[in-house]
Amino acid sequence: MAFELPKLPYDYNALEPNIDARTMEIHHTKHHNGYTTKLNAAIAGTDLEGKSIEDILKNLDMANGAVRNNGGGFYNHALFWEIMSPNGGGDPSGDLASAINDAFGSYDGFKDAFANAAATRFGSGWAWLCVHKGGGVEICSTPNQDNSLMPNTGCGGFPILGLDVWEHAYYLNYQNRRPDYINAFFNVINWDKVSALYAANK
Predict the structure, then answer these.
(1) Which stretch of DSSP H or E encloses residue 166?
(2) What is Dmax (Cα atoms) for the chain?
(3) How far apart are CA 72 and CA 66, in angstroms?
(4) Would you state the torsion angle of the CA atoms of residues 81, 23, 116, 189, taken in this order, to the nearest 10 degrees?
(5) How far is 182 from 44, CA to CA, in rounded Å?
(6) 19-47 pLDDT, tens per residue?
(7) In Å, what is the CA distance from 9 to each residue of 30, 44, 83, 89?
(8) Could you tell me whether strands 125-131 and 158-164 are parallel, antiparallel, or unpaired per DSSP bridges?
(9) CA torsion angle for 131, 136, 139, 141 (degrees, to 10)?
C-alpha cells in the first residue's frame, strides 16, 4: 500500500490567529503532499514497499537522501497535524506533566528549553520532545526532515511533540519572527494527544 496524505483533524482556519489558514493549506496540500508523493516514488519496487513508516525510519540507510528527506517529511508532518488542536494550549497533566517536571523543573522550564531548541535550530529543521523507555523525556532538535526515530541523529527516544521551524511553516504570517511563531505554537498544543503518545511509548 502506498502512503496517503492524511486528512487534517480540523479546518485550515481552525488554528487562527496562531497559525493562519493560508499557511496551513499550503503546508498541507503542497509541502506534505509533495513529501508523500516523493516518498512513494522513492520506495516503489524496493524492499521498503509495504513497510510502516516507523520501520522504514528506524532502519534507514541515512545515505538514501530520497527516503530520508521524504520519509522524514511525511512522518514529521503527520505527527505535527495531530499534536495541534483548536482547543489546545494549557498545561500537560498526569504522568506526562510529572515527567516534564522531573526533566525541566516545571512546565515553564520545559517551555523555555523547547523554545530555545526551536529558535536556535540554524536553517530548516524541527524541535522535539521525545520519550525514552522508562518514561524520561528529552528535548532536542534535528536538521531538515530528520527525526529521533532515525539512526545517529543525536536525538534519541520516540517523538511525541514536534515543531516545524522550516520557513514554509510560518513565513507568510510571521516573516522572520520565528520566536513569535514558537510562542504561538504553545497555544495550540493538543496535550491530550501528546499524553497518549507518551503513554504508548514510554
Answers:
(1) none
(2) 49
(3) 10
(4) -30
(5) 36
(6) 999 999 999 999 999 999 999 999 999 99
(7) 17, 28, 10, 16
(8) antiparallel
(9) -40
How are strands ordered across the β-sheet holding 125-131?
A: 137-143, 125-131, 158-164
Residue 106: partners with Cβ closer than 8 Å, 6 or more residues away: none
Q: From CA 111, how far away is CA 115, in angstroms rounded?
A: 6
Contact (Cβ atoms closer than 8 angstroms) between residue 139 and residue 113:
yes
* Four-point Cα dihedral 143, 148, 20, 100, nearest 10: -120
Three-class secondary structure of residue 164 per DSSP: strand
Q: Tell me 27's DSSP state.
A: I
Q: pLDDT class for 1, splitting at 50, 70, 90? A: low
* Through-space distance between the first and last CA atoms of the chain, rounded to whole angstroms: 29
Q: How confident is the model at residue 14 (pLDDT cuts 50, 70, 90)?
A: very high
Residue found by looking up cell 524520561 in the block: 136
C-alpha cell at 29: 496540500
Q: pLDDT digits over 53-74, tens only?
A: 999 999 999 999 999 999 999 9
**Element holding 149 (H helix, E strand):** none
57: number of Cβ within 10 Å:
22
Q: Which residue has the cell 514529521?
A: 76
* pLDDT exceeds cutoff 70 at 128: yes
Global pTM reads 0.96
Residue type, 162: G
